Structure formats: C-alpha cells, structure tokens
Amino acid sequence: MLVWSRGGRVLLWTIFALVFVPVVLAPLAVLVLAAFAADWNGVLPGAYTGAHFGEALSGEEISSLSVSLQTAFLAGTAAVLTGTWGALAVRAAPRALRRIADAVLHLPVAVPSVVVGLGLLTAFSRPPIALNGTMWLVVIAHFVLVLAFAYSTVSAALDRTDPAFALVAGSLGASPWRVLWRVRVPMLLPSIAAAASLSLALSMGEVGATIMVYPASWRPLSVTVFTLTDRGRVFLASAETVVLLVVTVVILAGLAVATRRGAAKQR
Amino acid sequence: MTRRAWWLAPPLLLVAGFFLYPLYFVVRESLTGDAWSRVASSGRFLDALGTTVMVSLAATAGCVVLGTFLALVLAFTPFPGAGLVTRLVDTLLAFPSFLIALAFTFLYGSAGIVNAAAGREVMGGFLYSPWCVIAAEITFYTPFVMRPLLASFKHFPREQLDVAASLGARPWRVFRRVVLPEAWPALGAGASLTLLLTLNEFGIVLFIGAKDVETLPMLVHSFGVVTFDLPAACVVAVIEVALSLSLYAVYRRAFGGGR
C-alpha cells in the first residue's frame, strides 16, 4: 500500500478514472457506437442501425476478412514454426554464433514495417523472382514482421524453463529426438500458443507493409478499413474494425481454451 | 563449426532471404541517380525528420508519465476491478493502432463528440495537428510502458513500502526513494521500446491523415507507392533504418539480449 489515508486513496482513484476513462475506454466505446450509428451529429448518435454490420459481413468486405484470416494463418503458422525452431537451435549453437543469430532473428522488430514492404517491393518486382501482384508478397511481409515476435516469445519462455528435465530424460537413455518431442516441445506449448496468438493479432491489424505490397486481388481487412476511412465512409469502417477485433478476440480465446485443455490432458 | 550449429541454417536463411536481401535492394536502389542529394536538399525530408523525432519523443514522454501513474495505482493502491482493468490493457496491446486514430476522428473531429458536447467549435484544428498524433500515440503505446512496470512491481516486497511509511515517509517520498530505484530497469526498457515503436509508427499517422503532419514512414509510403519515386523512397528508408537500428543497438546493449 503506497497511500494510507482513505481520502488520499479516493483522490488517487478519481484521478485514475479521469485519466483511464477518456484515454482507454472512450476510444473503444466510440468505435462501437460509430459502428451502429445511422447518423451522428450530436454528442451521441441520432439513430442506430445494424446495416453497417450487414454490409461489413457481405460481398467484397467479407472476402477482405477472409483474405486477412488466410494471410494471418499462413504467415503466423510459418512464423511460429520458424521462431520455435530458431529459439531451440540458437541454444544448441556455439556462443559466438548464438549472439549473432539472436540479434538477426530479433532484427525485424527494429525496422519500420513500411520499409519491410518497400524492400520486398524492390527486391521481388523483377526477375529472377517476380512476386509483385501476387498474394505472396503480403504473406511474406507478414511472416517477416511477426517472426521476430514469435521468436522472442518462445525464446523468453525457454530461458525460464528448467533444463534439468531434458537432461534427466537424456540421462535415462531417451534419444535427442525423443527428448525434443516428448519433453522440450510439450514444456514450450503454452509459449508456442502465446506466440501464435500474438502473430495472429499483429497480422490482422498490420497496415504499414501491407499497404506497400498488396495487389487488388488480395486486399486484407486493415487496408479495406483505410480505404473506407479515406473515402469518408467512417461508419462502415468502424463496423469493419469492430468485426476485425471481435474475430481476433474470438480466435485468441479459442486458442487459449485449446491450450488449457491440451495442458490438462498431459497431466 | 559443430554439426549442431547447422540447425540454425533454416531460420537464418529465411530471415536473410525475406528481410536482409530486400534491405540490400533498398540500399542499392537508393544509390541510383541523384536520389540522395535530391532528398537531402528537399525541405520536405527535413520537415519529416523533425516531425518524426519531435512526435516520438513527446509521445514517449507522455507514455512514461501516464504509464507510471496507471501502473502505480494498479499495483500499490488496487481497487475492486483492478484485475479487470489490467486485463483490458493487455488486450489493447493486441489491437491495431489505427483503431485509436479512427476513434479520435469521432471524438475530436470538427463534427466530433467534444465539439458537440461543448455546443461550439472548441477543438480547433486539433485533429490535424501534431498534438493529435502525439495524443493518439500516447493512448496506444502507454500499455507498452505499463506492462513491464506492472511485472516488476509484482515482485516488489510490500514490507519495504510499509516500513518506509511507518518511519514517516510521505507517499511521494516513498515513490521516489524506494519504488523508483527498483522500477528503473523496467521503466527504461518500456520507454526505449516505446521510443523505437513511435519512431516507426505508421498506422496512426496514415489514418488521421493530417496533411501537415508528415513523418518519415509516411514519406516512404508517399514516395514509394503514391508518386512512384522509388529511389527517393529508398533513401528515406535507409535513413530511417539507420536511425531505428542505432536506437535498437543501444536498447539491446542496455537491456540484455546479450546471450
């Protein structure tokens, strides 16, 4: 307890509420209201409608959502596999190489996403590998951007796990493969699930690299939201954003439940 | 080279092929023609550089003040529902940044809620000023400062606070002399990560769409896919990467990663 007097605490909580409500809660609330607003000229919307959601869940808009989900799935799966592989391999490498590899795998975090997009655009718009105008540039961009986060999530968990389990299994005669598959990977499962959740969330909301490389035939939801905002269709854009958030949160919750069930089964 | 080192080859090759190789092309493309002198002498670039640094420093400062305050209250003077608030903040980390920008247009735009509530034009040109970008970035990035702080406060021995208070120290003094020295590494890590991320922020600036607030990532986008001046875009990108990487090097040196 930092503040002991009742009055002091109440004052502190009041300031907390005065900061927290407008800064964190208001933007979220406003977005949801806008998604249901038929018109909005006063403090609150004049009338409410579900039409924006109807539009957000049909035609071009729903295919944009599907593009986002497919991109997030492809890029996320690849990034989680590569990141986990990298985290395990870094620890087996000699010390000097370990430092360099760790830095290289973290590197994309430090580079602006727009630059990642620009790089892919410049490098893969000409032979020998011309990928411009295909969905692959978008998937690769997302892969690069989420890989560093997936790697550092699994890597941090590896730092915290007790190496004794793997050593004991090995000393009892289990082959390295068996130790990896039956001891080390199962112990990492929660962090792998966390890496998958993070990858999915980041990929669903990615704008910077995507807007540089997306072709007309593969337009993720985040870019669609921007196009709508740019054209002044802000209510539909809000509905799309709410759809994006809800879909993301539902998948994350599903992943969390699946991980908990998996962990319970192992016991 | 041991055989086990070869296991590193697949992930490193993927990063090399999809990240380092494209970066090499950015550098090469930037060297075509007179792109460097063209960009360096244009006022637009210098303006963008100034705006980027100013916005990111101001946003980071705001995040540090706000994040420290919110984390302190949540950790040391908890109230019913504090756990829920913490979880909400964690969820916010997973949301896209443009959400804040979109919400800001409803809140602070010329036909926004604040103007409507006041009954007259009180927000002025706020929505299209650098202040709005700074405010939006503070809103979005404050959790990045809060999270490491909350994690470090969790292991903080409560007895120290109680002893300090029982010896007569005022809350402010306890904070400055007992809590702050312990929280320093977490605060530093959160602040430098925020500085790096705000320097690279694109979504918020793009969605607010203020014509007078052009940051370096916006300039890359504008040269790259709006006016199709690829060499100029690459010059700005090279400068941006140099800026971000030097900051990142300082961050890694100061806060671990040296395994």
Automatic annotation (TrEMBL), chain A:
Note the CDD domains from the entry: TM_PBP2
Give the membrane topology. Multi-pass membrane protein
Cell location: Cell inner membrane; Cell membrane
The UniProt keywords, alphabetically, are: Cell inner membrane, Cell membrane, Membrane, Transmembrane, Transmembrane helix, Transport
| Residue span(s) of domain ABC transmembrane type-1 | 65-253
What processes does the entry annotate via GO biological process terms? transmembrane transport
Primary localisation category: membrane
* SUPFAM superfamilies tied to this protein: MetI-like (SSF161098)
Q: Name one GO cellular component term.
A: plasma membrane
Q: Which InterPro entries match?
A: MetI-like, MetI-like_sf
Transmembrane ranges?
Answer: 12-38, 103-124, 136-158, 188-214, 234-258
Family stated for the protein in its record? Belongs to the binding-protein-dependent transport system permease family.
Q: What is this protein called?
A: ABC transporter, permease protein
Name its species: Actinorhabdospora filicis
Lineage, highest ranks first: Bacteria, Bacillati, Actinomycetota, Actinomycetes, Micromonosporales
From TrEMBL, chain B:
Keyword Ribosomal protein assigned to the entry: answer is: no
Q: Which GO terms describe its cellular component?
A: plasma membrane
Give the GO terms filed under biological process for this record: 2-aminoethylphosphonate transport; transmembrane transport
Q: Which PROSITE patterns match?
A: ABC_TM1
What is the membrane topology listed in the Swiss-Prot or TrEMBL record? Multi-pass membrane protein
- Which residues are in the ABC transmembrane type-1 domain? 49-251
Keywords noted in UniProt: Cell inner membrane, Cell membrane, Membrane, Transmembrane, Transmembrane helix, Transport
Q: Which domain of life is it from?
A: Bacteria
Q: Which Pfam families match?
A: BPD_transp_1
Q: List membrane-spanning regions.
A: 7-27, 53-76, 88-108, 128-150, 183-210, 230-251
Localization, per the record, is: Cell inner membrane; Cell membrane
Q: Which family does it belong to?
A: Belongs to the binding-protein-dependent transport system permease family.
Q: What is this protein called?
A: 2-aminoethylphosphonate ABC transporter permease
